[in-house]
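Box S2. Input/output pair 1.
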Amino acid sequence: MTTKLIRNADKIVTMDDKRNIFEDSSILIEDGKIKAIGKEALNEDVEVDEVIDGKDKFIFPGLVNTHHHFYQTLTRCIPEVQNVELFQWLKFLYPIWANLTSEAVYTSSLVALGELLKTGCTTSSDHHYVFPQGVSGELIDRQIEAARKLGARFHPCRGSMSLGEDDGGLPPNSVIQSDEEILEDSQRLIEDYHDPDELSMCQIVLAPCSPFSVTSEIMEETVKLAREYEGVNCHTHLAETEDENDFCQEAMGMRPLEYMESVGWIGDDIWFAHGVHFNEEELDLLAKTSTGVAHCPVSNQKLASGIAKIPSMLERDIKVGLAVDGSASNDSSDMIGEMKSALLLHRVNGGIDAISPEEVLEMATRGGARLLGRDDIGSLEPGKAADLFMVDKYRLGLAGAFHDPITALITCGDSNVVDMTMVNGEIVVKEGKLVNVDERNLAKQANEISKVMVNN
């Protein structure tokens, strides 16, 4: 048994059911779980293996990122796609992504997960759907390897594309796979890596890319396969742009969500990325069926995709999590920055009462956990995972912001890099630096791989 004590934190933002914020309090951790929290956690009779000084620190639950594309960290800020919308953006980048290698996937996963951990994110999903022909199909394995190295909690989404340009789809044929390849590898990953138990560090998700890149058959067979196993959820892009709505109307004769319902993709084990263009009737269906949405505010703004109806979703108790989306459409894996963007976007769109800082933090913690089907993360309370991050209240960017730690976290600061991040009771970011990799060498390696991919 391993025990740790975070002692005398200035404020602990729990995000528990009562939204308690404890002052001058401590957290006792035992074997990766929170054993006690509050003033009673500091019991001098308890012997611990390690004491961590929480003096002058704000402590928050680890953030949960519900949609990403790690490999896109290698194709950030390419000039040709800085002023185009989604379909044109994809058309340009698909041939570059066709140059992905196993090492590129591993390195980009370290980069993306490293950025996330440094900005307070302790659990992340990733939607990897590019499997170039002639490259080892075991690319998700390399992502899992990267997550283990960094100590991140990970929900890898085994994506797929089976509908190429020759058959009316968007992606080039060089990055599509057959239904048999997709389903065989999906089953292998579930049986080799999926852990549905409490405090699991890895849970597999099945995730065809989008309605315009896979066949109806693979959608139906994928969700059928997932439901044969405990805790295997499904994920895809949906209703991101008006172009997608038009594509679905022309190709399937129905709107995107209606199409999803027709292939069995609705329910509490399903969540969609974006959901920008759902209408009111579709929002009611999401609420009725407990189907979830990953909100990606920065990506939606950068690609001019639109503004998701998040306040309306929250009013309906639709499951909503926050997400940074791909680094080529966001250019960052910064979860704290994503929270600020969400707050400001919905206020300028819907008024000052549209959303509060606490609601945004809830979306990024409890909301993300709910979306991933987990009840062991998302808040700081006894019995839950010791996933958290700490911020020094005396950093210059927080000067004068001690009144309200939640608003201070989201709206203030000269940096979104946190002081410490802990996952499952293990410190993975210390004094703002990743513990398990050399950041400079990693960035250098990523740049070299990126040059080869882009210039090939």
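Box S3. Input/output pair 2.
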Amino acid sequence: MGNYIIGIDLGGTNLKAGIVDTDGKILHRLSTKTNSHADSQIISNQILLLIAEIIQGARIKESDMIGVGLGSPGLVDKRGETVLFSPNLPRWRNIPIKRIVAERFSKPCVLENDANAAAWGEKWAGAGKEVRSLVMLTLGTGIGGGIVIDNKLWRGASNVAAEIGHMVIQMDGPQCNCGNRGCVEVYASATGMVRRFKEVLKSGKFSSLKISDEITARMISDAAFQGDRASLDIIEETGRYLGIALINIMHILNPEMIVLAGGMIGSGELLMNPIRQVTQRGAFEASYKDTKIVFSQLGNDAGIIGAAGCLLTELEISV
């Protein structure tokens, strides 16, 4: 048995890889832009190439490599072998990526939903080390979710549980990439926040950012820290939408912890304050009191570390 796992985190924007040890530490990393609108073969080849590059770059022996943990957005089949559908990677469908990776490198591979992997990363090596139950939301291009109950990932009857981003909070809201209307992802993902911000600018509200700019969630956050009123308002509104989702989570699952991760947590307390205000006002007191809402400790590394940890769990190697 080797000493290292390759963790892969496939996102709608970036494809990231890391060499992870059995304590959950990343020793070497690489990333590249995801060719998100490419066909499935191109994305598969991107993954294979990145794995080969990180093995070569880290100068590890093949015998030192336990295997590959792969976190992918979207729905994974019951057997954990095939990516069925991913709203933010429209042509990434029915891909037997577990078999493709395992055959290419002659090593065990585990395939997990990316947000499940990130949730397991926080449970194994991050904010949730001391709790038995947590729910994680990954706030990026879309919104993913992962649930840990009694120290085990909860995947549901069809392996598609915790699609929190597709919780409908407004039945007649804008259409989501999943096909439904009014999903929380439409309002509170980075993509949704940028869309709503542009609508505000079109309505004539003043901002230091201009509608002609290539606006990103990071730009909105930076402008908010500089006191831009329109940016502050849109982040506060985003926090309120997230708060509604968290109330539902508290009332259904009553977890010990809810972890927020992804690029949007860079807004810090500007985002967290309205989340806490809405949940304190709307959740049952017992639910709110006993559920900690925290930011990820592992940050953008949660998916890589969690994917690696999922492989160790699959192989029944103690983590």
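Caption for Box S3: The chain has ten helices and twelve strands. The two ends are 15 Å apart (CA to CA).
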